[in-house]
Amino acid sequence: MGRVTGDGTVGKALEVLDQVAAFGRPVRFSEILAQSDFPKPTLYRFLQTLTNQQMLAYDPERQTYTPGLRLVRLAHTAWDQSTLAPVARPHLDALSKAVGETVHLAQLDHAQVLYIDKRNANNPVQMYSQAGKVGPAYCTGVGKVMLAFLDQDAVETVIEQQSFHGFTDHTLDSADALRAELSDIRQNGYGFDREEHEPGIICVAMPILTLAGRVLGALSVTSTTSRTNLAGLEAYVPILRETADKITRDAQNWSFPDYQTKETTGI
Amino acid sequence: MGRVTGDGTVGKALEVLDQVAAFGRPVRFSEILAQSDFPKPTLYRFLQTLTNQQMLAYDPERQTYTPGLRLVRLAHTAWDQSTLAPVARPHLDALSKAVGETVHLAQLDHAQVLYIDKRNANNPVQMYSQAGKVGPAYCTGVGKVMLAFLDQDAVETVIEQQSFHGFTDHTLDSADALRAELSDIRQNGYGFDREEHEPGIICVAMPILTLAGRVLGALSVTSTTSRTNLAGLEAYVPILRETADKITRDAQNWSFPDYQTKETTGI
DNA sequence: AAACTAAGTTTCACATAATGAAACCAGTTT
DNA sequence: AAACTGGTTTCATTATGTGAAACTTAGTTT
């Protein structure tokens, strides 16, 4: 039959969940239906189930669905256990204090960049708003340095999945351009975003690798062309490398999360 | 046969997901099996499906499961669309700056307090680590003020679900004690945490209500007995009330999320 | 090295649960 | 009042999920 999901009913339900999330705003049944491959009653049932399960929230007033609170609860654990964030946190704090610019911590998820943590330039942060955000891999500093250190065939798989939308006129808009850039990055050990995603926004990025060389994530320091330039950002390379190394070291050791006291401090 | 979930296969799968998350650490198949009502192969299949779907992450090295990255992605949207956080953010920033103490924004989820956002006292924040965290309703400032303004029968339902564990010797450890406290809070319009959850930790909390009086969430300012006392915290009541009012007002207006430009700023 | 054991994985007959065409039920519009 | 449109329910059919039992490693013991 038609290409669906694999993973049976559960997979299908999660597909619906993704669809709703993808709208990025409260959506009505009919809007989802229009996007969906599922027949009306099937979709209807999934939405009911997901809502029951608090994976979606339903606003009876406006008759709209949004992703539900249960996700927030679950994600807390996910963030704390399946990402670099807890290990990286102190190092990210230090880095942030040292450079005084916006810093990001990201990981690769599928073929996308997933932002895991962030410190804002000066104003005391509004984080989670950004953690969990996804972005294109081919035109962000963190994205490119992570791709650069993937193994050859993994890169190709990921490259195939990029859509190469030209955000600015500096955006690398072809697989070949990207391959060349990745090769450069591999050479240097770090990379830049030269206003490739947003005009005026530049960054320098450093991969976080295991001792064996596997990609764990990436760090970046972001600024604007009005405040500095690439040469200015390059000055941060040493401290970025240091920070990345520390994270690597901690991650390596910490990999035995031997029964940490689950809740030492109350919230 | 035995009480399960309702919501068919999807519900069961999500139950498993919760179980894994509840461990709060990477878990092996056999550990989950021990907790689970599902027979071995059934559980096995669910874990496979969830892992496939990135709702769980599997570490083949240690043979352990943890909540997966997909949750982080999804929660971002949930947080941004189904919580007070985006509306409250600027007001929370202002409040934080004004009082210089740790402030929390929370909502009620099931019978628990779900922390949605936070600003730390002085050190520039490590938020998401806390957002998504859940806590008991009966012995936190935010929990109690939210319960206080629920309608009568809703309160009773919630009270039944509390477990009344005595965290400290100030903890309200019975339904009746709690009912009395709620009545006081209703009188005053705000409430305290008198070291009920953690010794030395006190807070003043203010509900966020709709104009019609329905509970949306709660705010709190937290401090320690070494730095101040309840009278000291009470001084924050006016600014807390003001902040809560502003959030109410914005939430009321903002409820038509009329096609906001999905991504104005890149990350 | 043969005999246990425990943890994880696969099989397969069976029963349950998901499926979706069609029908139904508001509200709205023509 | 007839013809939409968006949402909900029914129900026979079928696909899917189910779990006892069997099997496969890998790790211990005798």
How would you explain this protein's 3D organization?
Two copies of one chain form a homodimer. The first copy, chain A, is of the alpha+beta class and 267 residues long. Chain A has two domains: 8-71, Winged helix-like DNA-binding domain superfamily/Winged helix DNA-binding domain (Arc Repressor Mutant, subunit A, Orthogonal Bundle), CATH 1.10.10; 83-254, GAF domain (Beta-Lactamase, 2-Layer Sandwich). Chain A contains ten helices and eight strands. The first copy, chain A, has helices at 8-23, 29-35, 40-52, 69-82, 85-99, 141-148, 152-161, 175-188, 230-234, 237-254; strands at residues 56-59, 64-67, 102-109, 112-119, 134-136, 191-194, 201-209, 215-224. In chain A, the strands form two sheets. In chain A, strands 5-4-3-8-7-6 form a six-stranded antiparallel beta sheet, sandwiched between helices. In chain A, a hairpin with a 6-residue loop joins strand 6 and strand 7. In chain A, helix 1 packs across helix 3 (40-52). The longest helix of chain A is centred in the C-terminal third of the chain and has 18 residues, at 237-254. Chain A starts with 7 loop residues before the first helix and ends in a 13-residue tail after the last helix. Mean pLDDT of chain A is 89; it is low at 124-128 and 256-267. The first copy, chain A, binds a DNA duplex (30 and 30 nucleotides) through residues 8-9, 12, 28-30, 33, 38-42, 44-45, 63.
Indicate the proportion of strand residues of chain A.
15-25%
The value of Rg of chain A in angstroms is 20 Å
The biggest chain-chain interface is: A-B, 82 and 84 residues
CATH homologous superfamily caption of the largest domain in chain A: GAF domain
Percent helix of chain A, as a range, is 40-55%
Residue windows where pLDDT falls under 50 for at least 5 positions of chain A:
124-128, 256-267
Strand order of the largest sheet of chain A: 5-4-3-8-7-6
Overall outline of chain A: globular
- Give the N-to-C terminal Cα separation of chain A: 50 Å
The secondary-structure element order of chain A is HHHEEHHEEEHHHEEEHH
What kind of assembly state do the chains in view correspond to? homodimer
Structural class of chain A: alpha+beta
| CATH topology group of the largest domain in chain A | Beta-Lactamase
CATH architecture of the largest domain in chain A: 2-Layer Sandwich
How many domain regions of chain A?
2
- Total number of β-strand segments of chain A? 8
Q: Please outline the major beta sheet of chain A.
A: 6 strands, antiparallel
